[in-house]
Every structure is written in structure tokens, then in C-alpha cells.
Design brief:
Largest sheet: 9 strands, mixed
Mean pLDDT: 87
Strand content: 25-35%
Low-confidence stretches: 340-344
CATH topology of the largest domain: Nucleotidyltransferase, domain 5
Oligomer: single chain
Structural class: alpha+beta
CATH class of the largest domain: Alpha Beta
Shape: globular
Length: 344
């Protein structure tokens, strides 16, 4: 079966060919005893209770890592292919979607645009030998086990994958052979990818109008954490920054500290910086771009502030999952072209 996984710096997104999907923060922490958690009747089977044993080692994953783990961490390394967190997140996502008895999977995944050129082959080699025995000690599959390996892999550049999810059949027919330029802006946790295509009889990548901007949601979170420290004199765990943004502040010494104004200013400043850098990538061709699609969780959060990027800017529906759905579409096309590659 095909399972598409986008192990992002902020969130891990996955979808199967049967359209089952999961999303959880890309947080991993060492696992520990949780026997006291149920004392007030707290459930153990939600996606926010991902407690796994991977190849004999216990981990808290996602929201549980943020809530109860010591040393919960995001992975912000550019070269994260061999990082333990990446392997744990990938194994957990695939295991959540792989039916019992299916041990071999066609994995569709991707890398940031700039990293794809330099890391694609290393990722493909890592995935060839990937083996994971996953046991769920908490979460939706509590008590179940999965053996994960990949009989086939499809590795695709992020944002380039999203274009497959951004264009419906009618739009594809409309632009085919037109020579129009279409750009996808994919804002993630660490970086923002810009990938531009020319619509001939087939879509042709325009590397001269594509690139990666070194700004993402992490920049906004770091700024807001600094404001929090300045206002309170206290340091907040970086893993809690997402909730700080979502709630517009935090309760400190029994009172709500409202950071809404500072967050809005930071949001507009980050959007302005990203728009300036994207326009530098497009150079003098910006006026000739037919349509711009915004994808990624960061674009969802900054959608309003990014509307001035281009007159024809469109936020893709379910933008956070756009890459994942795009990778799935690419893998399906590959299997149609290579029917003998399909396995159980």
C-alpha cells in the first residue's frame, strides 16, 4: 500500500491511499512511566497520547512529548535524515496508517526544495534499509504492533509535490500547453520553499524562479518567546510556543498575559520579510506569473498577511496537508506506470 509522509520541522503529516490521515507535532521525548495519568479518568487512546516503543526503545511523540516528556525537542538540523527523531516520527506515522499484517509499504515523502538536490540520494539509501518494530503503549492503536519496511520509495521536492494537490482537473486542462507560470509558496516551520512551473504539455520546473527562503514559523515563535521573557522575566519552554501563538498569550501567576498585539505585529513583519525574499527569487518575472498557491501550515497562519504577495494569490484548501497529498498523487502515478512494482 502507499503511505505518504511529510516529516516537517513543526508537524508530521501522513495520509494513506485509503485517505486515512494523521497530523501531530514533530516532537520526540524519552518515554517514561504514565501509570498516574489515568487517575482522573484521562484517556490513553487519543492521538495526543502517542507513547511508542520503536526497536525496543520508548518514546513520547507529538503532544504527549510536549505535555509530559523530559527533553521534548524539535529537530531543526538541515541534515536530519539520520537523526533519531526523524526515524521515530516516520515509523510512528507509517505505523498509525498501516493495517495489521501489512509490513511492506510504498513510502512517498519529500525534502525541502534546496535540500532535495543534495540529500535525495542519501534519503533514498536510508529508506532502503529502514526497519522499525513499533509497539503502541498509548494512542489510537494502544496494545498493537507494526513491523515497518519500505519495498518502494518515492522522494519528491516539497512544494513541487504540493502543485499536484493545488490544481484541480479543470485548472490543469485550462493551463495545459499555455506556457503560463504557476508558483507554489510553501511555508513550513523552518523554511519557505518557492517552486515555479511553466505549463507546457507537461509541467516544467523553472529552477531560475525557484528557491528556499530561510524563514518560517520558527522565526515567529522565537520572537514571541523573547517578548514573553521580556514581559515576564521568565523563560518559556520552546515546545509551548505554538500554544502561546494559538491562545494569544498565557496565564502567568493566575492572570492572562495578553500578547495579541505583539503577535500581530510579529506576524505582519515576518510576512513582509518572506514576501520581499520571494519577490527576489521571482525577480522581474513576478508580473508574468499567472497564479500563486499558498501551501503549508505557516501559510495557513499567515494567509491574510501574505495576500499582497501577488494579485492572484490563492490559499489551498487544507494547506497543511498539500505536500502530503501531492506526494501520494506522484506515487500513484508511478505505480500506474510500473504496475509490477505493486506489492501487498
Amino acid at each position: 500500500m502507499i503511505i505518504s509522509v511529510d516529516v516537517g520541522y513543526g508537524f508530521t503529516k501522513a495520509i494513506s491511499e485509503y485517505q486515512r490521515s494523521v497530523v501531530f507535532p514533530s516532537l520526540v521525548a524519552p518515554g517514561q512511566d504514565r501509570s498516574m495519568e489515568g487517575i482522573f479518568g484521562a484517556g490513553q487512546s487519543g492521538l495526543d497520547c502517542l507513547h511508542v516503543r520503536v526497536n525496543g526503545q520508548e518514546f513520547f511523540v507529538g503532544d504527549l512529548a510536549r505535555r509530559g516528556g523530559m527533553g521534548a525537542s524539535f529537530t531543526l538540523e538541515t541534515w536530519k535524515i539520520g537523526h533519531q527523531n526523524t526515524r521515530v516520527l516516520l515509523a510512528t506515522a507509517v505505523a498509525l496508517l498501516a493495517p495489521a499484517g501489512v509490513s511492506s509499504v510504498h513510502l512517498a515523502t519529500g525534502l525541502p526544495y534546496e535540500d532535495y538536490r543534495h540529500q535525495r540520494h542519501a534519503m533514498e539509501e536510508m529508506l532502503k534499509t529502514f526497519r522499525a518494530e513499533v509497539e503502541f503503549l498509548g494512542g489510537p492503536l494502544i496494545g498493537e504492533r507494526r513491523s515497518i519496511r519500505f519495498h518502494q520509495t518515492t522522494v519528491f521536492p516539497q512544494a513541487a509535490g504540493a502543485v499536484y494537490a493545488s490544481l484541480d482537473t479543470q485548472t490543469l486542462a485550462q493551463v495545459a500547453g499555455s506556457g503560463r507560470l504557476i508558483s507554489v509558496v510553501d511555508m513550513g516551520y523552518k523554511t519557505t520553499d518557492v517552486v515555479t512551473f511553466e505549463a507546457g504539455q507537461a509541467f516544467r520546473l523553472r529552477p531560475d524562479l525557484s528557491g528556499t527562503v530561510d524563514q518560517g514559523m520558527n522565526d515567529l515563535e522565537r520572537h514571541v518567546l523573547a517578548v514573553f521573557t521580556e514581559r515576564t522575566g521568565r523563560r518559556l519552554d520552546p515546545a509551548r510556543a505554538g500554544r502561546l501563538l494559538a491562545e494569544g498569550g498565557a496565564v502567568v501567576t493566575g492572570k492572562f498575559l495578553d500578547l495579541g498585539e505583539e503577535i500581530n505585529r510579529a506576524r505582519k513583519a515576518l510576512a513582509g520579510l518572506i514576501m520581499d525574499k520571494v519577490r527576489l527569487i521571482w525577480r522581474d518575472q513576478a508580473d508574468f506569473i499567472w497564479r500563486v498557491y499558498l501551501v503549508g501550515g505557516g501559510c495557513t497562519y499567515l494567509a491574510e498577511a501574505l495576500q499582497d504577495l501577488h494579485p492572484a494569490t490563492h490559499l489551498v484548501e487544507d494547506a497543511q496537508m498539500a505536500n502530503t497529498r501531492g506526494f501520494l498523487a506522484v506515487a500513484r502515478q508511478r505505480e500506474r506506470n510500473l504496475p509490477s512494482a505493486r506489492q501487498a
